[in-house]
Specification:
- The protein is 35% helix and 13% strand.
- The protein has 359 residues and is of the alpha/beta class.
- It folds into 2 domains: 227 residues, Rossmann fold; 71 residues, no CATH class.
- α2 packs parallel to α6 and α3 runs parallel beside α4.
- The model has no long low-confidence stretch (mean pLDDT 93).
Length: 359
């Protein structure tokens, strides 16, 4: 028997579970042929058929489930009108949903189903989410309603658009695909199930659509097998904003959720005092949340700054007037401000190789 010269007792009392969102929840709004306008939770393909038959809503829910959604909140808006779609989306605002799509409903010059109703919804909802929309079949950059391209100018980074030549519920299928991916994973070149296109877009059409940050269904010749994939993964966020891609948008939302969930805790709010010990506890909690994100590869690194803690760390006699005022203001208002800086590495999109051939 071996002799142990060093004994170590490990305590796990300081560990806690980081709150994680259920990535797989999708919401679909469309005409379901029922009179029920209340959100209905659908968990299976057969349940979607039994509830909504082969209506636009039924087809959309099935497309989302077929492509990876774990569950779908479906709302029957009846025959689509702008008010009806808006009301249906409003009924979903309080649900914990990550991706929203419209079934059988596209933007027209007269009805802003996407640029108004869906876009407004994803920004007004209680939880962070993205809206997935499709253009009308065969629409390209020359025929798409100007309100759609206007979302890019307005920096609507929660909106993800798809151009297609299909009669399938493309937006709902892509919503299902996005929902099954971790936030830092891109839907780029991932297969989409149950979508058939009659013809493809020309290279010129694709280039123009992607300049407008609208994604295109493609069938690359170098990917074996049949089926369509997304040729890009843009959101309608302006390039200067830094949020032009779906994985960037979802990582920001996921980190925000984890920080909110981790800090909305009676052991933090209403318990931590505004002194060196209390704010050190807060730093430790923030670090514990963000380190789990580093460990799984979601982010690369982080840095946390609490100016009040920096001021408190100094001897009282060496604090500046501004630092003393910062502490007094924090304690009288019972509020502190800080900065969390996160380093995120986006996914690879393009490889350029120089091939040198020598005899």
């Amino acid at each position: 028997m071996g002799v142990e010269f060093v004994n170590i007792n490990v305590s796990t009392t300081g560990l806690y579970t980081t709150s994680t969102r259920d990535y797989g929840t999708v919401a679909v709004v469309g005409n379901g042929g029922t009179s029920n306008t209340t959100p209905v939770k659908i968990g299976s393909y057969s349940e979607a058929t039994a509830t909504f038959s082969t209506t636009a809503l039924g087809n959309g829910v099935r497309a989302a489930l077929l492509n990876g959604a774990s569950k779908v909140w479906a709302v029957d808006c009846g025959t689509p009108t702008l008010q009806g779609v808006t009301s249906a989306l409003e009924s979903l605002e309080g649900y914990d949903i990550q991706v929203v799509a419209l079934a059988g409903i596209v933007e027209t010059a007269d009805d802003a189903y996407i640029s108004d109703a869906l876009c407004d919804h994803v920004y007004a909802a209680a939880t962070e989410r993205v809206g997935v929309f499709q253009l009308g079949a065969e629409e390209d950059i020359t025929t798409v309603p100007t309100a759609i391209t206007g979302m890019l100018t307005a920096n609507k980074s929660r909106m993800f658009g798809i151009a297609h030549n299909s009669t399938s519920e493309v937006a709902c299928a892509v919503a299902g695909l996005i929902s099954k991916l971790k936030p830092w994973e891109s839907p780029l070149l991932k297969g989409i199930t149950g979508v058939v296109q009659t013809i493809g877009f020309t290279n010129a059409q694709i280039a123009a659509l992607e300049t407008a940050q609208i994604n295109v269904l493609v069938d690359p010749i170098y990917i074996t097998g049949e089926g369509y994939v997304l040729g890009s993964d843009f959101v309608m966020g302006s390039p200067t904003s830094g949020v032009s891609f779906i994985d960037t948008r979802r990582v920001i939302d996921d980190i925000a959720y984890k920080l909110k969930a981790g800090l909305t805790d009676p052991n933090i709010i209403g318990e931590v005092r505004i002194n060196k010990t209390g704010l050190a506890t807060l730093i430790n909690r923030l670090s514990g949340i963000l380190q789990t994100c580093v460990n799984v590869g979601e982010i690369e690194d982080y840095n946390i700054t609490l100016p009040v803690l920096n001021a408190l760390s100094k001897d009282e006699s060496s604090r500046s007037t501004a630092e003393a005022l910062l502490i007094t203001t924090a304690r009288t208002s019972r509020a502190i401000s800080g900065t969390v800086q996160i380093s995120y590495a986006g996914v690879l999109h393009t490889i350029n190789l120089d091939v040198n051939i020598v005899a």
